[in-house]
Amino acid sequence: MTDCIFCKIINGEIPSAKVYEDDEVYAFLDITQVTKGHTLVIPKKHVKNIFEYDSDLACSIFSRIPKIANAIQDSLPGVKGMNILNNNGEIAYQSVFHSHIHLIPRYQTEEGFKLSFTDNSKSYTNDEFQQLAASIKKTIESVS
């Protein structure tokens, strides 16, 4: 895609701090550096988000995540954990519309990054909860 910043990075039109590359995957330091070592892992094939992945692309991308995550942890002293994030769609805070996975090393509890979820478990009866699961399961089985 000609106007995609990540495609331009892959093609060498825009400089990046590359940490990994192979035929299908490119990984580089995120310019924002939420924490030291914050890395983006992207497919070389332009896909907007996870909804455009097929199983082969998913395998290619996600199979590289442990290698890159371990390299980040092993090369940066003090990494105690890591957030692995993938935002899909504007409503989910995706800002660059070329799929990318954030690897955000965590060093301490308070470091300018917080992720929290609201507990909505009381909003569902057990029957509603099981019906929700059944609906998703049925859809999965119909596309398999």
UniProtKB/TrEMBL annotation:
Residue ranges occupied by any HIT domain in the UniProt entry: 5-113
Organism per entry: Facklamia miroungae
Protein name in the entry: Histidine triad (HIT) family protein
Active-site residues per Swiss-Prot or TrEMBL entry: H100
GO biological process: nucleotide metabolic process
Motif Histidine triad motif, residue numbers: 98-102
Molecular functions per Gene Ontology: catalytic activity
Regions that span the bilayer: none
Phylogenetic placement of the source organism: Bacteria, Bacillati, Bacillota, Bacilli, Lactobacillales
UniProt superkingdom: Bacteria
